[in-house]
Each structure stands twice: as C-alpha cells, then as structure tokens.
Amino acid sequence: MSGICIVAEHWKGELKRSTLNALTFGREAAEKLGVDLSLIVVGSNVSHVADQLKFYGAAKIYVIDDPQLEHYTAETWGHAVAETSKACHAKIVAMSFGTTGKDLMPRVAAKLKAGMASGILSFDGHSFTREMWAGSVIAEVEIKTEVQVVTVQGTHFVPANPVGSETPIEHLSISIPRGRTHFIETREARSDRPDPTEARFVISGGRGMGEAGNFTLLEEIADIFEGAVGATRAAVDSGWVSNDLQVGQTGKKVAPDLYIAVGLSGSIQHMAGMKNSKVIVSINKDEEAPIHGIADFGLVADLFKAVPELSQALKKELN
Predict the structure, then answer these.
(1) Which member of 20, 115, 119, 239 has the lowest number of beta carbons within 10 Å of its beta carbon?
(2) What is the pLDDT of residue 187?
(3) Nearest 5°: phi and psi at 69?
(4) Other C-beta atoms within 10 Å of 251: how many?
(5) Which one, of 216, 298, 307, 221, lies nearest residue 265 by Cα?
(6) pTM (two decimals)
C-alpha cells in the first residue's frame, strides 16, 4: 500500500525541478511513517516525464495518460489525481507549492474530503509546519482527516538525486468527466533565460535600478551564468519588468545556488522569497540596508559603478 503520493509537475514534456524538491519531502515523510513512496504523472503523452522519474527510488509510478488531460485545468487534473490517490491508498498527497500546486491541490483535497496544509516546511511524522506573516511566524499544523493533502515549499528541501533501481510504471485508465471549464489558449512570456524558480543563478533588482532600461545591467550578468533575472514588487509595480519575474512573498520563491540582490533594500516580503538561497550577495550603497544583514557577502557601493565592473571582471575571468 502506498503511503505518500507525490504529484509530478511538468511543462512541455520536461519535469520541473520543483518536483525533485517535493520528492525529497516525500522520501522523508515515507521514512518517518514507514510506508511506500509513489509518484503520480498526469497529462497527455507523458511517458517521457514518467521515464525521467524511474530512478528516484519510488515504489511505483502511476501514469494517467489521456488526450483530455493535454491542457491543464483544475477540474480534469483534480479528478485524475484524486482518483489515482484512492487507487494507491494514499495517506499523504503532495505537490510543489507552485502555480499549479496552489490551483490544483485544494480541489484534490475537496474531492478526497481531506484536510489540507499549504506551503509546508517540514513533517515530523505527526504534524506539519508552515510559514505565516512572511516567515516571521512558524505554525504547527495537524491534519486529522484520514487522507492529508499538502503543497510543499520546495525552497526548504534540496532536489532529490537518482537512487536505487528502476521503478515500475503502472498506467491507470480513469474516466475523465467533461468539465465546465475549457482550455482556449496559453499565453506565456517568452525568454531565453530560465524561470527564476528553476535557475541555479538569480540576480534581482529593486527600486534602486531607477528605470526599466537599467535592468540590462543585470541581464548581462544573468547571461554569463545562464541564469535568471528577478525583481522586487516595487520594480514590477513600476512597470520596469514583467510580474512573472517578481521574487517575494507575493511573487516567486527561489533558492538558487547563488542569488545577487542589486539596488534593493531587503524588505521582509522580498526576503521571504529568497532567503533560502545557498549563497546571497548584496550590492547596495546604503550600508544599513536590511539585505546586508542576511547576505553572505555584502558590497556597499553604487550599483551603476559596481555592476558594470563586476560584469567586465566576470567576462575577463571566464574568457
């Protein structure tokens, strides 16, 4: 009997890195409860996604492959995940706390008549913890229903590495009811750079950048590392960058290997979205800026002088 079921998040046939963070949570929870770990892959033509998960130590991978699931809607995917969770006798059903997880898992919980906790940080075998008030309060949550549904704050878990032998794959045939919502089209922001949540390097700018055109300074460094550009809410609200680059409590939560914060003070809302980065570098001319307080390396300098010099030094070193 499966105890923990992790729902895989994928896009255009490729597994999203956040799924590997959720997998680490799944392994830890399964070990604490002494139960099996299984994976759920939902969509259309998703065999390649399942293949990417075969060596991560799960007891089984359940695949629901149906043309009606080609385009995500919470109605159809929620039904598929809930029915699969019943089939594998799940105790805990979990998914990454991303855009899809926030939309999908409450519907799954409702269908399973299960209690739910969002953005969980840990599980001790009995209760979960999650952040409140931009991380200034840690709440302990106990879910008393037989099945428990959670979304996992991936920045608190390292990505899982492949382990063990090949996991068997079981294809389930589930009748997908016609929903009341219908897919029309996808409009996505196109960029040659990775999404901030998937990147190993992120450089973010704040109000100190002054205007939209100055973000080219950050883009040059991001391209050197094949990384992503991020921004504070102030920069997004000013219209300097698109809102899909916002990092913070009301934006995206990131945990890259290296995070460079440029011209941003470090509000509690922004730091809630990047404080779990492995190495943090701050560049701000205000030596009292809060961001310097959590940075591993802080540079008190004018960004318009320091960032171009940094870019030139990196290009010289790497060429």
Answers:
(1) 239
(2) 81
(3) -105, 10
(4) 23
(5) 298
(6) 0.88
